[in-house]
Amino acid sequence: MNVYDSARMADVLAPLGYEPADSAADADMVILNTCHIREKAAEKVFSELGRLREAKEQKNRAGEPMIIAVAGCVAQAEGAEIRARAPFVDIVLGPQTYHRLPEMVARASRAGGVALDTEFPVQTKFDSLPPPGRVENHAAFLTVQEGCDKFCTFCVVPYTRGAEYSRPAADVLDEARHLAKLGACEITLLGQNVNNYHGAAPGGGDWTLGRLIRAVADIDGIERIRYTTSYPADVDADLIAAHRDVPQLMPFLHLPVQSGSDRVLAAMNRRHVSADYRRLVDRLRAAKPDLALSTDLIVGFPGETEADFEATLALVEEIGFIQSYSFKYSPRPGTPAAQMTGQVPDEVKADRLARLQVRLATNQERFNRACVGRVLSVLFDRRGRRPGQLLGRSPYMQPVHVAADDSLLGTIADLRIEASHANSLSGLLADTREVAA
Ligand code: SAH
Questions:
Q1: Distance separating alpha carbons of residues 216 and 142, to the nearest angstrom
Q2: What does the CA dihedral 191, 192, 198, 202 come to, rounded to 10 degrees?
Q3: Which pLDDT value is given to residue 111?
Q4: Any idea where the domains of the chain sit in the sequence?
Q5: pLDDT at 437
Q6: What is the DSSP string of 352-391?
Q7: Alpha carbon of 155 to ligand 1 centroid (Å)
Q8: Ligand 1 pocket check for 27: Cβ under 6 Å
């Protein structure tokens, strides 16, 4: 979502004459769009600010100004600390107020004082954003939902992104049509809890995510649809049916489970036990037999024992996740888990993470090998490193190399997969079909 938000900030600033610069040192303004989900991400902001301070001083010595802004969830959660630790920062803005950047830039350049805006305005930023300016590599993100009401005990999202909000379906469809016109053939619908989407329907009432996906699939030029991130307990029958019925919906689902231990899941306040998750995956696979899954996992949650961790390893093996974002538990300020007893020592977390990653890499290799001999559709989204080579992505997000010329860029073709490598596949063209522009 930060990628989407950063692009929207560029869209908001374009009318003021700002355009992306090649490096921070050349820039009139630098915006750090930040993440607060784990401590490491948040701490990076301060080390990065140290470097920017030097760049700003150098520019100032040459008589040129440089505006420094900190945006995103670290700004939301630690605005006061940023001001205290980094007084050379001109603008601090949360994720819900970046549509007001032009005002803040004007204020910062006029007064030279700090402009701080970390409110949750009643009128949403989406009502004031211009249409997206460009699409890169034929794929686009589209935020449909923001915020979270789930309050997992480890997570800061409800405090930084705020309560759940769904954009009206008509607005989402307008933006999707616009993205298709700019050349997007793949759209990823985004939300912190995207499958609890319940946006106002064009004819009154609400639409579910399943209904929204069906409408996006009707847009000319949209050949592939993905959505992320989903909360398992909120997957409904309508969404499962969309996996069965909508050919554009890719057979690859990111469904964070966090742990395989029911004791840990309860302590996390996840509203599912591992058996619920297994049943859900069975229902999804019954609807879409070639569905592959990726997930998020946390190791070393407070109180996690070796046996709890082994339950996670067993679930990873059983479900056959082909990919995972796996993290050491990171205590976050203001969250209940940070106060829990039984915090796990870092070396234990590191050891579990390493073992988990070995298991996941094995799953991924096995899955990649099983793709050899299959015909997979590939969206050619960029040039390869060598001339005459294109790089694309399979339905399962695997990078795929093929010998082909540039005329295929932005098209989807069936490839016969010839070989699997550590992190990619290579294939031969089986048949090419142009994507309608
Ligand atoms: N909405 C998703 C979570 C998205 S947050 C869900 O309900 O599952 C992205 C991921 O960051 C989470 O899935 C979790 O695995 C990880 N994460 C969040 N808080 C964390 C923390 N305090 N320590 C370690 N990982 C964390």
A1: 11
A2: -20
A3: 65
A4: 2-117, 125-367, 372-436
A5: 36
A6: HHHHHHHHHHHHHHHHHHHHTT-EEEEEEEEE-SSTTEEE
A7: 6
A8: no
CA end-to-end span of the chain: 26
Pairing status of strand 292-299 against strand 323-328? parallel
Mean pLDDT confidence for 127-137: 91
Q: How far is CA 262 from CA 258, 271, 338, in A?
A: 11, 10, 19
38 touches ligand 1 (CB under 6 Å): yes
Ligand 1 binding pocket includes 321 (Cβ within 6 Å) = no
What is the position in ligand 1's atom list of the atom closest to the CA of 156? 19
**34 near 79, Cβ under 8 Å?**
no
Q: What is the CATH number of domain 2-117?
A: 3.40.50.12160
- Written as six digits, the tokens of 398 are 């695997």
- pLDDT for position 431: 59
Amino acid 171: pLDDT: 96
| Ligand 1 neighbourhood includes 231 CB (under 6 angstroms) | yes
pLDDT of 351 higher than 50: yes
DSSP secondary-structure letter at 199?
Answer: P
Is there an atom of ligand 1 within 6 Å of 277 CB? no
- Placement of tokens 């940023």 in the chain: 82
Same fold: 125-367 with 372-436:
no
- Superfamily for domain range 125-367: tm_1862 like domain (3.80.30.20)
CA dist., res. 76 & res. 92, Å (int) = 8
143 CB-near residues (< 8 Å, 6+ apart) = 1, 4, 5, 126, 167, 190, 191
CB atoms within 10 A of CB 237: 11
Write down the pTM of the prediction: 0.94
Q: Which atom of ligand 1 is nearest to the CA of 330?
A: 23
The DSSP H or E segment spanning 67 is strand 67-72
- Please name every residue paired with 414 in a beta bridge, in sequence order, or none if there are none: 377, 431
Q: How large a percentage of the chain has pLDDT more than 70?
A: 97
Tens digits of residue pLDDT in 18-36: 999 999 988 999 999 999 9
User: Average model confidence (pLDDT) for the chain?
Assistant: 94
Is 372-436 a CATH 3.40.50.10860 domain?
no
Amino acid 112: pLDDT: 61
pLDDT tens for each residue of 177-221: 999 999 999 999 999 999 999 999 998 999 999 999 999 999 999
> Quick one: residue 71, left, alpha or beta (phi over 0 = left, psi -120 to 50 = alpha)?
beta
Question: 98 C-alpha to center of ligand 1: Å?
Answer: 24
Q: Scan for tokens 């005002």, then name that residue.
A: 103
